[in-house]
Amino acid sequence: MQTISSPLSLAKLKKLAAARFGNLVKAVVDVEKKIMAIDADLHADEEAALLTAGSKQNDLWGINLYPEFFGTEDFVEFDSMINLRPSVHNLSRGVENPDIQNKIFAIVATFITP
What we know:
Helix content: 25-40%
Distance between the termini: 21 Å
Radius of gyration: 13 Å
Number of domains: 1
Strand content: 15-25%
Strand order of the largest sheet: 1-4-3-5-6
């Protein structure tokens, strides 16, 4: 697992995917600090690392990155148990708020480069 705050190449992301799950890399995005924790078995592990580093729970969202779909809408998947947050009206494993989705897309776009 690693926390990234600077760009990561698509080639490196593909290697991470191949080494762990084959086709995806799990990530947790802090939409306020604009950082991501990536490459763990569980989103909860990435979430815990970011919380330990000072992130706030409501700023963290779990996603999956599919390197083979880079540049398409299927590159980022909003699906994680950590996203279930009735207290902020997110009642699914997805990210229901379009503003938060857009923040996540922007952060991912700054970190994953061709």
